[in-house]
Design a protein that fits this description.
Blueprint lengths: L4 E4 L3 H12 L4 E4 L7 H9 L4 E2 L3 H6 L9 H6 L2 H10 L4 E3 L4 E4 L4 H14 L3 E3 L4 E7 L2 E7 L2 E4 L2 E4 L14 H8 L8 E3 L3 E3 L11 E10 L3 E11 L3 E3 L1 H14 L4 E6 L6 H14 L15 H10 L13 H11 L2 E8 L7 E3 L7 E2 L4 E2 L5 E3 L13 H19 L4
Parallel strand pairs: 1-2, 1-10, 2-6, 10-21
Antiparallel strand pairs: 3-5, 4-5, 7-8, 8-9, 11-18, 12-15, 12-17, 13-14, 13-16, 14-15, 16-17, 19-20
Length: about 425
C-alpha cells in the first residue's frame, strides 16, 4: 500500500491541505494534537469566521506587506471566489459585510468547522486527534514521515501546518518552527501582528470600553510612519480595534528602536478652520456653561476630561472666558490626541504571528521545501502575515490547498 500524505496540524491550512490531497485521490493522514480540529478557526472573526474578502487579487496581495507576491500562485489556484463557491457546495451560505469581509450567514464559526470536518469524513481522510508530533523523519534528502508520541507515521510527503505562536491555547505553540530549523530551514524573527498595544498614559483605563469611529490614527517615529482611518477601542492597558490592529505590524517594528508616538485625529473629516467654527458654535450654544459641559455634542462623555487635561484647560472654566489661545490648544488635541506606545500585548494575544519559515526556501508554485524533498509548509508557519479583513484565513486555505494538491501530484517544479 502506498504511504499516505501526512498533514501535521488540524487548523485552516491543515484541513485544506488534507482536502487538496484527498480530492486528488491520495491517501491522507491528518494529525492534530488537540481533541478536535479547527480550534483557532472557531475563534476567528470573534467567533463568526471572517473567511475571506471580496477584494481583487492585486489588492489581496497588497494586504501582505513585503511578501504578498509569494502568494500569487496559491491565490490563483484557490481564489476568494473559489473559496466562496467551495463553501456554497458544502452548504455553508456566506454574506459580505463592510470592507468586503465574508462571513457565514449564520454568524457561527462552528458551522464552518462542522462542514469541513464532515467533508474530510466523506473524503475518507484518516483524522487522528490527540496525536502530538515530536519531529520529522527523513533520509537521503527526502522526508519519510513523522515521529509521534504514539510512534512513527510513515509518509510519502509531509505537510507542516502547525500555525504560529498566537493563541497557544488552540495548539499554536511554535512546534513546526523547531522541526523546520532541525532540517536546515531558516526561521525569520517571530513577532506579534494584528495585536493590541499598551500605552504609557494611565487615563486610557478610565475610558476603557470606549469605541471611536471614523477617526484617524497616525504612527510617528522620527517622522510620520503610517496612518489608518476607521474604528478603534480603548482598553484597560491601551488601545485596540481594527485600525490599531492594522497599524500594529508597523508599530511592533518601530518599538524595537524605542517608544512610539500615536496621535488620534478625533475629527479627521474637518479641517482646522471648519472644526474651529464648529467649536465656536458649540461655545455660543453653551455660553453659560462650564467648558466640560460645552463639549458634550462634540465628544463622547468619557473623553471630555482627558481631552481638556491634555489641552491644559480647566474643565470648570466658563465657556465665555476661554481665550483664543486656549481654543487653539483644544483644537490641537482634538486633531492630535497623543499616546505613547510602550509595548505590544504578548504574542499569545496576537491574531497572527509575523515571521516564520523563510520564503526563499519554499517553492511558491507548490509550497514544497527547497531543502528537503516532499516536505511542504502551509499557513501561518510561513513568513507571510496580512492585515485584518479575512486575508490571513484565505492565505491559510490557499497555501494549504496548494500544498495538498502538490504533494498528491508529487510535483517538483
Amino acid at each position: 500500500m502506498t504511504d499516505p500524505i501526512v498533514v501535521v496540524g488540524g487548523g485552516a491550512a491543515g484541513i485544506f491541505a488534507a482536502i487538496g490531497a484527498a480530492e486528488k485521490k491520495a491517501p491522507v493522514v491528518l494529525l492534530e494534537k488537540n481533541a478536535r480540529l479547527g480550534l483557532k478557526l472557531l475563534i476567528t472573526g470573534k467567533g463568526r469566521s471572517n473567511l475571506t474578502n471580496t477584494a481583487p487579487l492585486d489588492h489581496f496581495v497588497q494586504q501582505f506587506p513585503g511578501h504578498g507576491r509569494f502568494l500569487y500562485s496559491a491565490f490563483a489556484n484557490l481564489s476568494n471566489n473559489d473559496l466562496i463557491s467551495f463553501f456554497h457546495r458544502l452548504g455553508v451560505e456566506l454574506k459580505v459585510e463592510r470592507g468586503g469581509r465574508v462571513f457565514p450567514v449564520s454568524d457561527r464559526s462552528k458551522d464552518v468547522v462542522s462542514a469541513l470536518t464532515g467533508y474530510l469524513t466523506r473524503l475518507k481522510v484518516d483524522v487522528r486527534t490527540n496525536t502530538k508530533v515530536l519531529g520529522l523523519l527523513h533520509k537521503n534528502g527526502r522526508v519519510t514521515g513523522v515521529m509521534t508520541e504514539q510512534g512513527t507515521v510513515a509518509g510519502r510527503a509531509v505537510i507542516i501546518a502547525t500555525g504560529g505562536l498566537s493563541y497557544p491555547r488552540t495548539g499554536s505553540t511554535g512546534d513546526g518552527y523547531a522541526w523546520a530549523r532541525a532540517v536546515g530551514h531558516t526561521v525569520t524573527d517571530l513577532r506579534p501582528s494584528l495585536v493590541p498595544l499598551e500605552t504609557e498614559e494611565k487615563w486610557v483605563a478610565d475610558v476603557q470600553g470606549l469605541t471611536l469611529k471614523n477617526v484617524k490614527v497616525t504612527v510617528w517615529g522620527p517622522k510620520k510612519r503610517g496612518e489608518e482611518f476607521g474604528e478603534m477601542l480603548f482598553t484597560h492597558f491601551g488601545v485596540s480595534g481594527p485600525i490599531i490592529l492594522t497599524l500594529s505590524r508597523l508599530v511592533v517594528r518601530e518599538l524595537e528602536q524605542g517608544p512610539v508616538r500615536l496621535t488620534i485625529n478625533l475629527k479627521p473629516a474637518l479641517n482646522r478652520e471648519t472644526l474651529e467654527r464648529r467649536l465656536l458654535r458649540d461655545f455660543d450654544k453653551y455660553s453659560g456653561k462650564h467648558l466640560k459641559n460645552a463639549l458634550k455634542d462634540l465628544l463622547p462623555q468619557k473623553l471630555i476630561e482627558p481631552v481638556l487635561k491634555l489641552s491644559r484647560l480647566e474643565p470648570h472654566k466658563p465657556v465665555h472666558q476661554v481665550t483664543k489661545q486656549e481654543r487653539q490648544l483644544l483644537l490641537d488635541t482634538l486633531q492630535g490626541l497623543p499616546l505613547t506606545v510602550t509595548a505590544p500585548r504578548p504574542i499569545a494575544e496576537a491574531i497572527v504571528t509575523s515571521g516564520g519559515v523563510a520564503l526563499k526556501e519554499i517553492n511558491p508554485k507548490t509550497m514544497e521545501s527547497k531543502i528537503l524533498s516532499q516536505l511542504y509548509f502551509a499557513g501561518e508557519i510561513l513568513d507571510v502575515d496580512g492585515y485584518t479583513g479575512g486575508y490571513n484565513l484565505q492565505a491559510a486555505f490557499s497555501t494549504g490547498y496548494l500544498a495538498g494538491q502538490s504533494a498528491a501530484a508529487g510535483r517538483n517544479e
